[in-house]
Amino acid sequence: MALACLQGCAHTDPLAGQPFFAEPVHAAPDTATVYFVRQYRQLSPQFITEVHVDGKSLGGLPTGGYFKVDLPAGVHRVRSNKTSILTDEATREFDLTVAAGKNYFVVDQDLWSEPKDGLTLGEMSNDIYRGSRHYFRWALLPEDAVVPFMPKYRLAKPADAK
Prior knowledge:
Elements: H1 2-9, E1 32-38, E2 49-53, E3 56-61, E4 65-71, E5 74-83, E6 88-98, E7 103-111, E8 120-129, E9 132-141, H2 143-146, E10 154-155
Parallel strand pairs: 1-7, 4-10
Antiparallel strand pairs: 1-4, 2-3, 2-5, 5-6, 7-9, 8-9
C-alpha cells in the first residue's frame, strides 16, 4: 500500500537530460534574444507554466527551466497559463518591447515579499501561504542579475518536441 502511494506521488523531471544554461551570446543584429525563465519553485513545483508569444506556444516551462527565442524588434504579446496550489493564475498577459541586438531575461518568480523594483511585467498576483503573503509575477530582470543563477537551469523542451 505504501509503495502504491509513493508511486502515485512520484513524477518525472521534465528537464531530465536537457542541456544546462550556457553563457548567453550576443543577440543577432536583426533580432532580440529573449530568455523566458521559471525560477525554482518551493511551492507547487510540479505545475507547468505554458508560455505563448504572439499566439504561438513555446511549450511548458517547468520550475528550473528556460526557453530561448529570437524575436524581431517591436512589441510582442506574452501570455502564460498556470495553476498553482495557492492561486488560480489561469492566464496572465503582458506586452514585451524588445530591440534588435539585445538579450532579455523574462523571469516567472515567486516572492515572499512584495517587490518594489519596478521590474514587474503585467499584473502581479498574491495570496497567503503559511501565514505570509506570497507574490507571483513575471519580471524583466537585468542580464547581470540573472546570469549568475542560470548555470543550474535547463533548457525546456519546445512545444513542437515529442
